[in-house]
Specification:
- The chain has 131 residues and is an alpha/beta fold.
- It has a single domain, classed as Rhodanese-like domain (Oxidized Rhodanese, domain 1, 3-Layer(aba) Sandwich).
- It is 37% helix and 15% strand.
- It has a five-stranded parallel β-sheet. A two-stranded antiparallel sheet has the order 3-7.
- β5, α5 and β6 form a beta-alpha-beta unit.
- α1 packs across α4.
- It is globular, with a radius of gyration of 14 Å.
Length: 131
């Protein structure tokens, strides 16, 4: 299972620009069954909260650990729709590239993130929770 991941990580797969969505679209998709994964660090989440109902996998830069945790959440289903969110979209973009490189076919990055940029999750008034 990890052989494919190891083989593809070195390829530097990058998602197309069209694979970004707004926080409002992420919430709409989450309600419809897309797996929303918050990739921020625990102290950030504790300080400012998190998108309600989001799964959490801390993006530490360890792509193999992130992929293993994502596989556990998706049951290895690489067609499962996934939306990734961080503070601003940078870390979630790295996580997105790792998932695309591992063969996940429906992965989007939430632009503006949770609380950065003019159009973010919090500023959009979307559901959030304290963690």
């Amino acid at each position: 299972m990890f052989d494919k991941i190891k083989a593809t990580l070195g390829m530097g797969a990058v998602a197309p620009d069209s694979a970004t969505i707004t926080p409002a679209e992420a919430h709409r998709r989450q309600v419809s069954g897309t797996l929303l994964i918050d990739v921020r660090h625990a102290p950030e989440r504790a300080q400012v909260g998190a998108p309600a109902g989001a799964a959490w996998i801390d993006w530490t830069g360890d792509a193999q650990a992130f992929l293993a945790a994502t596989m556990a959440l998706t049951g290895g289903d690489t067609t499962k729709p996934i939306a990734l969110i961080c503070r601003s979209g940078v870390r979630s973009g790295h996580a997105q590239a790792a998932l695309w490189g591992a063969g996940y076919s429906d992965v989007v990055n939430v632009v503006g993130g949770f609380d950065a940029g003019p159009e973010n999750w919090r500023a959009s008034g979307l559901p959030e929770e304290r963690v």
